[in-house]
TrEMBL record:
GO terms for biological process: transmembrane transport. Keywords: Cell membrane, Membrane, Transmembrane, Transmembrane helix, Transport. It is found in: Cell membrane. Its main location: membrane. It holds the Pfam family BPD_transp_1. The keyword Transmembrane applies. This is Protein LplC. Belongs to the binding-protein-dependent transport system permease family. It is a multi-pass membrane protein. Residues 79-280 form the ABC transmembrane type-1 domain. InterPro entries: MetI-like, MetI-like_sf.
Length: 301
């Protein structure tokens, strides 16, 4: 019976080859635009104007990066802010999300359904931008503080639902009951059993959270006026806005002179490279947990 089931679940080599070819094509389709962005960022503006986008630049140039990094001190300070917000925010968000998800995954918790309802309610309705701004500035007094860049994104209902479902499906109740019989408390079970068995789920949620914090510029635009707390993305966004403004209003002689000094297309791609590269470097560290599958925590018969 087991042999028949095994043969039923196996695909012929020809179908495996077809699926592999499809995945290779999808990978190439995803990688080609990234390669083009990197190539454009190292292409001179004159070459872009004359020959357009090319995978192999006819004239290499670092003018775009020189323009982006002309305010080196501010970029360095903004990079420190973004790295700190991303690191601390991701860890704090994972802790809060894991605690909430573990509570909701416990079927014996009395208020589980009530808390799940309030969680799901926030996915459908929210107070809006103006009330949240008033609460953050006038009630919590978080304006122009480091924590205003962390707390608003620290808990996501979507991430809680993902992690709760993962815990319910991958962590057997028998493991928790056995630990409880041995005298383990809830904090011990959470820290020594639930967290290690939830690494794939935490890695997935952690990657979502990391990208959210790294790409955020909106909170900085709303709440930050102190130059020392300006994030890298907000600074690059303002730089991009300045380039777009000069480009769209290049009618006077002064603006034409400015346009001649600004590598507009190359600077846009250089900004994208600066934002994209750290995420590309971080993804492989999370990928090793994805390939493990959801079998961690299962009980072998």
């Amino acid at each position: 019976m087991e042999q028949t089931s095994s043969k039923f679940n196996q695909l012929p080599k020809s179908w495996n080859l077809v699926f592999n070819l499809i995945l290779i094509v999808l990978c190439v389709v995803c990688i080609i635009p990234i390669i083009l962005v990197y190539a454009i960022s190292f292409t001179s503006e004159a070459s872009l104007s004359a020959k357009g986008y090319q995978f192999l630049p006819s004239e290499w140039s670092l003018d775009a990066y020189r323009y982006v990094f002309r305010n080196g001190d501010q970029i360095l300070q903004s990079a420190y802010v973004t790295i700190g917000v991303t690191a601390i925010g991701t860890l704090f968000s994972l802790l809060v999300t894991a605690l909430f998800s573990y509570v909701l995954s416990r079927r014996d918790f009395r208020y589980r359904n009530v808390m799940a309802f309030f969680l799901f309610f926030t996915m459908l309705f929210n107070g809006g931008l103006v009330p949240s701004y008033i609460v953050n500035t006038n009630v919590l007094h978080l304006a122009d503080s480091f924590w205003i860049l962390i707390l608003p994104y620290s808990l996501s209902a979507f991430n809680v639902i993902i992690l709760r479902t993962f815990m319910q499906q991958s962590i057997e109740t028998a493991i928790l009951e056995a630990a409880r019989i041995d005298g383990a408390g809830e904090w011990y079970i959470f820290a020594r059993i639930v967290i290690p068995l939830s690494k794939p789920g935490l890695a997935t949620v952690g990657l979502f959270t990391l990208v959210t914090y790294w790409n955020d510029w909106f909170l900085g635009q709303l709440y930050i006026t102190n130059p020392k707390l300006v994030s890298l993305q907000y600074m690059l966004m303002k730089l991009q806005s300045n380039i777009d403004f000069v480009t769209s209003n290049a009618t006077s002689a002064t603006n034409n002179m400015l346009m001649a000094q600004i590598p507009a297309e190359g600077a846009r791609m250089a900004i994208l490279v600066i934002v994209l590269t750290p995420i590309l470097c971080a993804y492989p560290f999370f990928q090793k947990y994805f390939v493990k599958g959801l079998t961690i925590g299962g009980i072998k018969g």
